[in-house]
Amino acid sequence: MFITERLLTLADIPYRDFTAKLIPTIDKECIIGVRTPAIRSLAKELLKQQPKEAMVFLEKLPHYYYEENNLHAFIIAQIKDFEKTMQYTTQFLPYIDNWATCDIFAPKIFLKYPEEVLSYVQQWLKSNETYTVRYAIGVLLSNYLDEHFKTTHLDWVAAIRSEEYYINMMIAWYFATALAKQYKTTIPYIEAKTLTPFVQNKTIQKARESLRISAETKEYLLQFKLPN
């Protein structure tokens, strides 16, 4: 497909080697080595100049290259129709196979439909797919810790029990960010040691690394570390 050929022309071998070290769950042969701004620009170009081809590309799952998945995510992120965006998102999530693609995937239109998106988030949290669950937690982190925040969201994430490293790391990111943005509501979960030892300790570590949390709070959090 000509879209894949376009990506191949943008290959940067040293960058491919760098990327492969960051994403150990992907075979190096499946990484072209295209920088994210170039992929994002290509997505905009395709939607503007060749929208039919872009939509055909969204139906070509699974992809072979890591960058094809990233391009797929960026194309969906720019669709302006909510129903179409959610249709393509639902189709795509089971094919995400790494943390990086998962974390860059952020459809702009989600912000305009917080209640509707939340119902999908609840479904995704129950998925058996590692990156679908991680994605759901990431959406809660990015879109629901400010004006749309509810305590029940903390309950949803705290209830997750997984052996998957990339799920547990996102849970820790979520709670560390929640401590920075919704401290009074979040700190009881840490004080009660609600989370698994790994997640509890990673949450505390990330909170202590945050510039948005006071030195006093960082010191206070230390007493809630758990033995692994």
From TrEMBL:
Protein name as catalogued: DNA alkylation repair protein
Source organism per UniProt: Capnocytophaga periodontitidis
InterPro entries xref list: ARM-type_fold, DNA_alkylation
